[in-house]
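Dataset card, provenance and construction

Sequences and ligand SMILES were collected as paired inputs. For each pair, a complete structure of the chain with the small molecule in place was predicted and serialized as structure tokens. The example below shows a pair involving pyridoxal-5'-phosphate. Curators did not alter the output after generation; any descriptive sentences attached to a record were derived from the structure itself.
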Amino acid sequence: MQIPILELKREYQYLKKDIDQEIRACLNTQKWILGPKVCEFEKKVAEYLGLKYTIGVASGTDALLLSLSAFAFKLKKKERFDSRDEIITTPFTFIATAESILRSGARPVFVDIDPATFNIDPSEIEKAITKHTVGILPVHLYGSPCDMDKICRIAKKHNLFMLEDVAQSFGAEYRREKVGSFGDSAAFSFFPSKNLGGFGDAGLVGTDNKATAGLIKSLRDHGQNKHYNAAYLGFNSRLDSIQAAVLLAKLKHIDEFNRKRIKIANTYNQAFKNIPQIQTPASGLRASDLGLTHIYHLYTLRIISRRAKLLKYLHSKGIGTRVYYPFSLDRMRAFKGAKCQGNLSETRKATSEVLTLPIHPFLKTCEIEYVIKSIRSFYQKL
Ligand SMILES: *Cc1c(COP(=O)(O)O)cnc(C)c1O
């Protein structure tokens, strides 16, 4: 059996009629840049997330960068931070999170993660705050919400902006509210592999602040405030109409798809709970109390022993498993100018233990069973 970590063809087959119809509407109007499909998608996402404003951009990375550029303008009256300005984030994330901080002119400050959730540890954030700190950039990793109560409180107390990286958590909830509605702004990615994915690069910024929304709308279109008059140093970063069309068709099914992910995760959790070498993804925060939903964009285990051997074994069985992420950002040459709070020992441990299994809405029961059987047989042979 071959079970790739991602299988997008099945999703397309399932949604083909809708997607093809949406794309055809684009072909008929020939409005490719900020056309009616982009407006329609922005409006529907705003409704879905409970946000006042949404701005479609070219990628999740740009959603982060344009947000930071807008915050720089608000704080400094220019579109970039100074290298002294510090933004606190997690080193256990995808490259783009800290890349956007450096591109915005500021300095990333890496703080350790909470081992129960793999997300940024709020108490480590507090320790890292200096007079140069301007903001906090938490990442809802793997589909699991960060501890927003604590992070919001810290941001408020120290008068810092908070930008949520929601690239992996579209539709996840904290206290029954969608993540992305807690920060001063939020960055979403619709990269094809994300739980809501386009047919290419795409992203979106969400905010409740009118001024921030206006600024980002202008920044995505060369900083224009009037046609052919640039008020800001902007970017060429617009959401393509065709991506908006595809995403409109998929958005209707996002809750159904997220529920399927959760169901598969529960099956995996049950199956692995008695294997001593494996720790299943605990929701860390008491899920029911906090109205928390982990939407399992990625299903990531801790493998306490023999991870490399297990990985190899699963590949030999045709199962697509991966390590998200084998290197933490603080260890990368590109981020050698960043600051670190403490020794980041939990991050270190996570990079050596995590393993992600296939999880997507179109995984078949027999495939799930095959993954479980393969992992059990690996540990039974010991
Ligand atoms: C995918 C991802 C991004 C970047 O999104 P792109 O659309 O690929 O630019 C940023 N942060 C995290 C955590 C991601 O997983």
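Derived descriptions for this record:
The CA atoms of residues 6 and 358 lie 7 Å apart.
DSSP finds 13 helices and 15 strands in the chain.
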